[in-house]
Amino acid sequence: MARFLHLPSPDEGIDEDPLVGVANLFDVSVVFIVGLMITLFSVYRMGDLMDPNSEVTLVKTDADGLREIIVKEGTEITAYELTGETMEGDGERLGTAYRMANGQIIYVPD
Length: 110
Prior knowledge:
The protein is of the alpha+beta class. Helix content is 22%, strand content 27%. Among the domains are: 20-50; 51-86, no CATH class. The chain is built from one helix and five strands; from the N terminus they run H-E-E-E-E-E. The mean pLDDT is 82.
């Protein structure tokens, strides 16, 4: 039985492929990315973005101070850019918006 089993002597070095660890690093990075995505969705409570029956409104401000309103109704997503221009016309008052000390905006319908 010993003639079929080749054990290296202590003097021989063990031949290892240097690229063996690369596959493991790829697997670890995929698990890390998925965990990071799940954490971000739970921390920012963005699970409603994946729900096809939910309605979500986001206000995004870029580095230049331009604002964009993103509205998701069901599976349809619409983005509106705020221009800062004032308009005139006939209309009716729908409510009041308040900016809190922490920057949060609260809309109170009439």
